[in-house]
Amino acid sequence: MPRASVHTLGCRLNQAEGALLTDAFRSEGYVMVPESEPTDLIVINSCSVTRGAEAKCRRLVRYLLKRSPGAHVVITGCYAQLDAEALASIDGVDLVVGTEDKHNIPSLIESLEKRPTAEILRRPMSRGPFTIPETGSFRETRANLKIQDGCDVFCSFCVIPYTRGRARSRDLADCLREAESLAALGHREIVVTGVNIGTYENSGVDFTGLLSRLTEIDSIDRIRISSVEPMTINSRVVDLIAGNEKICPYLHLCLQSGDDQVLSSMKRPYTAAEYVSLFRRLERAIPGIGVGTDVIVGFPGETDEAFERTYAILEELPFYHFHVFSYSEHGSTRSARIEPKIQPEQVKARSEKVRRLGALKKKGFHDRQIGRTLPVLFETKDETGSWVGHAPNYSRVSVDGAGNLANEIRPVLITDSLVEVALGELAGD
Ligand code: SF4
User: Fold this and answer.
1) Backbone φ, ψ for residue 220 (5° rounding)
2) Atom 1 of ligand 1: nearest residue by CA position
3) What is residue 232's predicted lDDT score, i.e. its pLDDT?
4) Would you state the CATH architecture of domain 126-248?
5) pLDDT, tens digit, 9 for 90 and up, residues 255-307
6) Cα distance between residue 99 and residue 159, in whole Å
7) What is the pLDDT of residue 57?
8) Which part of the chain is CATH 3.30.750.210?
9) Cα separations (Å) of 167 from 36, 72, 162?
10) Which class for 275: exposed (0-12), middle (13-18), buried (19 or more C-beta within 10 A)?
11) pLDDT at residue number 351
12) How many C-beta neighbours within 10 Å does residue 120 have?
C-alpha cells in the first residue's frame, strides 16, 4: 500500500481538518507515516495568516522532498486558496487544491505519478451548509469537532474571509453524527471549532442550540468552546455555560486591541468598554471562568497612548492567558493600506511587554486554583514523567501519578502553581 503523510500548519481548525484528512487517507488504504519517514505522498495543509506562515509552507515542501524525492506533492489550505499559482511554481509540487475541495483530496488523487507541471484545482467556495465525509479514528485526547467555516466580518487585518470564504455552518445532523462517533471512539472531551463559531445556524438551530444538543449525548463528558468572537456571545450562551456542567467554563474571547480608534481601524464591531462589560458579565454568571484572548500589537496607527489603553485592559481583567501577535503586513488585507506603520523595534518592545504581563496573568490564574479540587482530563506525560491534563476552566494541571492516566478524568487537589502549570495530587475518587 502507498505511504502518505499529512502536514498541517496553522490554527486549531486547520489541525482539525488535517486530522480528518489523515483519517480519510487511512480509510482509503494508505499507510500513514510520520514526518520523519520517507513517503510516496506528501500532503501539506497550509496556513496564510501571515507572510511568515506562507514562507514556512514553501520551506516545508523543500525539506520533505529532500527526504522523499519521488513523492507526489499536494498542497491545500489557506495559502493554496489565496495564491495557488505561487505554490504551483515550486519545483516538485504536483497538485494545488483550494478550500472547497480540501476534504475531497483522497478521491482526487488517481495516480502518484510526478507531473511535469502542477495542476491547480480551486473552485469557487460554496455559501451553503456543508457536511464532512465520515472517517473516524481515535485522535488526540481532546477531539476537535468542526462545526462552521468562513466569516463575514472582514476585519481589516484578516485574510480568512478570502481563504475560507463567507460564513457557513455544518449540517446539524452531520455535527451530531460525528460527535457521537468521537464519543464512541472514547473521546471524553470535544472541542467545537470553526472560524466564527458563534454565528452557527442550521436547521433553525443556532450556536447555543447546537451546544445544548451536544450536551445531550450521554457518552460525552465535556464540551469545550474554542476561539470565539465577543460580538457573538449573547446571554443565552452565557446562561448555557453557567447552567450546564458539561460545557467547560472557559472562553477564548478575542480582544485584538483595547483602543477604540484601533478597533475601528481593524473593523472590529465592538468597543473596548463593550468587551470589558461582557467580561464582567461572564465573571458574575460563571465564577472562576477561564478566559483567554488574542491581542495584536503594532497595528498601523497604534500610538503609545493606544497601546497603553490595550495594556490597561489586559492588566485590569483577570485573564488566564494571551496569544500575542505582532502585527505583520499581509498584502491581501485592507490594513496594508493603513498608515503610519509602527517601527519594528517598537512592535517588539510592545510584544515583549504584553508577554511579560501574560506570564504574570497565567501564574495568577494558577495561584487562584490552589486549594481547589478540579476534575482533570489527563492527556500525556511531560518531560519530567508527570501526567499533564486540563481542568474544565482550561487550567493546565500536572500530577505525579502512577499507572496510565491517559484519557482519564480524575479529581486533583491543587497544591501549588507555576507559570505554565498548576501542581496537584490525585484526590480520593
Ligand atoms: S472575525 Fe475573526 S475570522 Fe472573521 S475576519 Fe475577523 S479576525 Fe478574521
Assistant:
1) -95, 125
2) 153
3) 97
4) 2-Layer Sandwich (3.30)
5) 999 999 999 999 999 999 999 999 999 999 999 999 999 999 999 999 999 99
6) 13
7) 97
8) 126-248
9) 36, 32, 11
10) buried
11) 98
12) 16
What number does the ligand 1 atom closest to the CA of 229 have? 1
Tell me, using a 6 A CB cutoff, whether residue 194 lines ligand 1.
no
Question: Ligand 1, closest atom to CA 154?
Answer: 5
Q: Which of 13, 99, 159, 195 to mutate to test the pocket of ligand 1 (most atoms within 8 A of CB)?
A: 195
Least confident of 47-56, 167-176, 390-399: 47-56
Q: Which fold has domain 3-121?
A: Rossmann fold (3.40.50)
Distance 266 CA to ligand 1 centre (A): 10
- Write the residue with the smallest CA distance to atom 6 of ligand 1: 155
197 closest CA partner among 14, 21, 13, 20: 13
Give start-end residues of each CATH 3.40.50.12160 domain in the chain.
3-121
Residue intervals of the chain classified under CATH 2.40.50.140 are 373-426
Q: Which of 139, 128, 149, 289 is nearest to 224 (CA)?
A: 289
Does 138 contact ligand 1 (Cβ within 6 A)? no
The pLDDT of residue 325 is 94
Query: Per-residue pLDDT tens for 322-337?
Result: 999 999 888 889 999 9
The proportion of the chain whose per-residue pLDDT surpasses 70, expressed as a percent, equals 98
* For residues 363-373, average pLDDT: 97
Superfamily in which the 373-426 domain is placed by CATH = Nucleic acid-binding proteins (2.40.50.140)
Atom nearest to 164 CA in ligand 1: 3
Q: Is there an atom of ligand 1 within 6 Å of 229 CB?
A: yes
